[in-house]
Each structure stands twice: as C-alpha cells, then as structure tokens.
Amino acid sequence: MKADAQRTMVIPAATAGSADDLRVSVSIMVLPCGFRDFSTSNYCSPTVKRDCTVGAMLDVHRLRVFRAVVASGSVNAAATNLGYTPSAVSQHVTALQRETGLVLLARSGRGVEPTSVGRALAHRIDGVLAQLGEVEALAADLREGRTGSLSIAYFASVGSAWMPAVARALLADFPDLRLGLRLSDDVAAGPGPRPDVQVVVAPRDFTGTREARAHHLLDDPYVALVPRGHPLGTEPGVELARLATETWIDNDFAHGWCRRNLLDACQSAGFSPPFRVEAHDYPTAIAFVDAGIGITVLPRLGAVRLPAGLTAVPIVSPTPVRSIHALIQTSVESAPPARRLLEVLKECASRGTVPVG
Q1: What pTM does this model have?
Q2: Which of 26, 107, 222, 349, by CA, is between 20 and 30 Å from 61?
Q3: Sign of CA pseudo-dihedral 128, 116, 55, 99
Q4: pLDDT tens digits, residue range 123-180?
Q5: Boundaries of CATH 1.10.10.10 in the chain?
Q6: How do the residues of the chain divide into helix, strand and coil, expressed in percent and rounded to 5?
Q7: What sign for the dihedral angle of Cα 84, 86, 91, 94?
Q8: CA–CA separation, 169 vs 337, rounded Å?
C-alpha cells in the first residue's frame, strides 16, 4: 500500500475510574484514502464502547505539540522549542482538547501543568510517537534504498573499548546498514522487543536463551588499580587478601553482576572490601584513584585507558574473572551483518581492546 494512499487515525480510549487511576490507550490505524465508511462509532463494538470514551480522529502533530507543552511546562517555552508562536501552540492544544473532549492542561503559576487525564495521555503519547518515529525511519531507509538494520546492546566498558571498532567495521562493509546502539547491562526478561545482538556478562557456561544463542568472547580478569607511588605498583601481581587493608573505592553503583562476582572472590579470600568512597562507574572511580584517595578493583577491560602514572596490577589467589558473551537472536544470526559483527567482536576480544588495522 503506497504511503500517499493512506490516512493515519489515532484513537485514544480512556478507561473508567478515578482521575488519578485513569489509563489511556491509543491505537494507530492506517486506512486507504478511499475508505470512506469508517467511523469510530462503527469501530467500537458495544463491549468496547464501555471503555471507549473518546472516538475522534486525532491529529498526530497536535499530539506532538501537546507533549512539548507538558515537557516544557509552559506554552511560551514550548513555542520557543518548536519554533512556533505561542498563539499557534495554544490553538493546537485547544483543538486537541476539543477533539478528545478532555481538559488536558491547567494553569500553574506562570506556566501550565497537565491534569491527571492530560498526564495519562502524555505518557501514552510517548509510546505512540516512538512507534511513529520508527515508521518514519523505516520509510526514510526504504526511500534511500537502505533495507537492513541491526540493533546492538552493550555494557559500558565494552562500549568504550570495542564499539567504535565494531561500528567502523560494520559501516565499512555495509554502508547502507542502519545501526542502532544502546547501553544495557542486563538481559531483558519477559515479553518485549530484544536487540538483535547483546554483549553481556554471564557465567562461563552460559549458552543463551530460548530465542538467542550465546557466543563466548572473553574471560576478563580483574586488576587492582593503584595510584602513582603505591607500593603495589611495582609488583607483577598481588594476592587478593593483601588488599583487605587498603582504602577501596566502589565503582558499581548499580551493584550488578560484576560487583557481585568481585565480592564473592573477596569472601573466598576471607574478607569483605572496606569501601570508603562510592563512585557510580569505572571512569569516576579511576579519577578518584588518580587523586590518590584509594584503590579500585575492576575488570581489565575497564582499565584499558588510564591516566599517566596509574598502574593496573593483576590479582592472583584467587583471580576474579568475568565472562563476556555475544547473545545473538537466532532470527538474525545467519544475516551477513550479524555474522560480521561476531567476527569483529571476536577480533576485539582476542586483542583485549580493538582490532589492529
């Protein structure tokens, strides 16, 4: 069906209940322009009518304008952000309220704030606009002859060490590929979309999920990062138990798998790390070490780029290790971009950082 032979209809439905408990659902229907007999009253069956309090066709552009007003907190600010006049923004919002039959905004000081129903509608609009954005991106790809895409999720230390090389290799081999990258530490559970490929930390024997196959990439040992002049900085390795009396800087605010893995190793060495400073991530913890505040222990891949003077000392007896895998959806694993991605990830892992050349 050609795009110029379609109309987009957005139908919100507000369920009954208290204002604070109001839920709004929005459906998007694409209809041929010659389809004249559609009406929202015919569309809603007697059963659905109980939940369908709004049946007017909504203008997507007005939804965008309303969402901008909610995000900005005032009509004037939204007008500035959108490049409109305040009068034009007000007219769009007024028209949307008329179409929905809902009071969406209320005055608050010098600005406005959404009513309870307006807040519910704005929340649902986010999902609608995201879906429309995906449709628009797909249409742009098709216009330009780009028919392929690949979505990749990764965790932070892999992002800085490997992802630039991954993106460079993929876009060199597949210039028309639309590459989607996002940061994610955990494998998604339950229903919902999945990235085509996700670089994850998991047990060494991890084989994947029902929908995805795991490919082991690297066993990444932990190191102790010490400041310049520290006595351990000249040693080839340090037993984990010797770090029990050091001032520790925490580096995992989310308390994820990598941190739990380290705590288990410390407990097996007979102590719990005496954290004195809590940092949110590896770069921040490294900055604290560089300031001479203490040491931090992290996987070697997280210590690839260090300030001058800092030393990463291997940990032994025991050596905490995290295993890194590429989790590839079986639906895309035979596609050339996915196969090439796995090759580049293995090259990165074999060198510890990025592929040569």
Answers
A1: 0.60
A2: 107
A3: negative
A4: 888 888 888 877 777 677 666 545 578 999 999 889 988 999 999 999 999 988 889 9
A5: 3-143
A6: 40, 25, 35
A7: positive
A8: 10
- At residue 316, the pLDDT reads 92
313's enclosing H/E stretch is: strand 311-316
Distance of CA 177 to the CA centre of its chain: 20
Which class is 3-143 in CATH?
mainly alpha
- Cα torsion at 270, 274, 280, 285 (round to 10°)? -100
Using the CB atoms, write b or e for 310-346: b if 16+ within 10 Å.
bbbbebeeeebbbbbbbbbbeebbebebbebbbebbb
Which residue type is seen at 17?
G
Q: CB neighbours (10 Å) of residue 351?
A: 12
Q: In degrees rounded to 5, what are phi and psi of residue 214?
A: -95, 140
Protein fold of 148-357: D-Maltodextrin-Binding Protein; domain 2 (3.40.190)
Contact 237, 326 (CB under 8 A): no
Residue range(s) occupied by CATH 3.40.190.290 in the chain:
148-357
DSSP string of 237-278, one letter each residue:
-EEGGGGGGS-EEE--TT--HHHHHHHHHHHHTT----EEEE
Mean pLDDT of 221-244: 95
Q: Using CA atoms, how far apart are residues 125 and 30, in angstroms rounded to an integer?
A: 17
Beta bridge partners of residue 277, listed in sequence order: 249
Q: What are the backbone angles phi and psi of residue 59, rounded to the nearest 5°?
A: -85, 120
The sign one gets for the Cα dihedral 280, 281, 287, 288 is: positive
* Continuous H helices in 115-207: 116-143, 156-161, 163-173
Token readout for 41 is: 């009253």
From residue 47, alpha-carbon distances to 28, 43, 155 in Å are 20, 11, 46
